[in-house]
Design goal:
Structural class: alpha/beta
Radius of gyration: 22 Å
Number of domains: 2
CATH architecture of the largest domain: 3-Layer(aba) Sandwich
Number of strands: 12
Number of helices: 12
CATH class of the largest domain: Alpha Beta
């Protein structure tokens, strides 16, 4: 009888989907203490995880584990080689949150351009009107550089175009013809794009190649006074370098949804920069987006139990050849 372990609560509709499946049992662990996980893991055939680590040691405690379904798209907290070695398939929810993150990205751009957070604070202090030290800007007619043209980046491009922005795209893994065929200008040399963009926004995964991508050299190559947006992964950015660029005016404003280390700590250098606005890794977490992610992750677990996982959700297809057998009710 397949048993699904959910690491922290997810949307009720997704739990109901799992519980309605014949022969499937569900366990939600609310507090992920070592004692709770030690008790739950040995029974797990499937795990749904939000933003917690799933490593090889945990998989070793679950000999019947077949799938780790990520409630989202980033999987840098999951030990992919370790899961593959044990025949554990890792899945993501590729379409579920792309629209939510794209909308959040536009929100950060607009909040930077209109100094929304700063003017909100001024009104609450009974200050009224525009002040010279807090100029606001239109984004229509500006140039945005989008780094990464995947599911989220393509949606950001469409929204930016709708707002009247000139859209540049840099993605070395996407053919130039594909980008141009979508109606956008392809950037071949990243520095060329950085030099002319009024807004730079990240939409690429965290990997050995991209970690620390946004460093002093990257920021120095940006057009002076540009905006910087990161709703992708915190480890793409060297935060001390970004803080210095914000203090010097090289970067006029930053909108940040993700940090190198989460949750935020008092020592994070960006906290001392008033021209940086934050959200607490909530770009994907709209009510609608959270429901879609939960349902997608739950469906992947059920599909895995019945050997019908679609290819586009699988991170490590090599694991399919190593999976443990599982008896599933019809």
């Amino acid at each position: 009888m397949p048993h699904v372990l959910i690491m922290r609560p997810i949307h009720d509709d997704a739990i109901a989907l799992l519980e309605a499946a014949p022969g499937v049992t569900v366990e939600v662990v609310h507090k992920l203490t070592k004692e709770a996980m030690d008790a739950a893991l040995p029974r797990a055939n499937g795990i749904i995880v939000r933003t917690n680590v799933v490593d090889g040691a945990m998989a070793a405690q679950a000999p019947g584990l077949r799938i780790v379904a990520r409630h989202g798209v980033g999987y840098d907290l999951i030990d992919i080689p370790g899961m593959t070695q044990r025949g554990v398939v890792v899945t993501i929810t590729p379409e579920a949150n792309a629209g939510s993150v794209a909308e959040h990205t536009l929100m950060l751009m607009l909040a930077c351009a209109r100094r929304t957070v700063q003017y909100d604070a001024r009104v609450r202090d009974l200050n009224w009107g525009v002040v010279p030290e807090l100029p606001t800007h239109d984004i229509a007619g500006r140039t945005v550089l989008i780094l990464g043209f995947g599911r989220i980046g393509t949606r950001v491009a469409r929204l930016c175009a709708a707002f009247g922005l000139n859209v540049l795209v840099y993605d070395p893994f996407i053919p130039v013809g594909t980008i141009r065929g979508s109606g956008y200008e392809a950037v071949v040399d990243l520095r060329d794009g950085l030099a002319v963009a009024d807004i730079v926004t990240l939409h690429c995964p965290s990997s050995a190649e991209t970690r620390g991508l946004v460093n002093a050299d990257f920021l120095g190559a940006m057009k002076r006074g540009a905006f910087f947006i990161n709703a992708a992964r915190g480890k793409l950015v060297e935060e001390a370098a970004l803080a210095e660029a914000l203090r010097s005016g090289q970067v006029a404003m930053a909108g940040i949804d993700v940090l190198y280390d989460e949750p935020v700590s008092a020592t994070n250098p960006l906290l001392d920069t008033p021209n940086c606005i934050f959200s607490p890794h909530t770009a994907a977490s709209s009510h609608e987006g959270t429901r879609r992610m939960a349902l997608s992750a739950a469906q992947s677990v059920l599909d895995c139990f019945h050997d019908r996982l679609p290819a586009d959700v699988i991170v490590n297809p090599e694991a399919l050849q190593r999976r443990p057998a599982l008896a599933v009710a019809g």
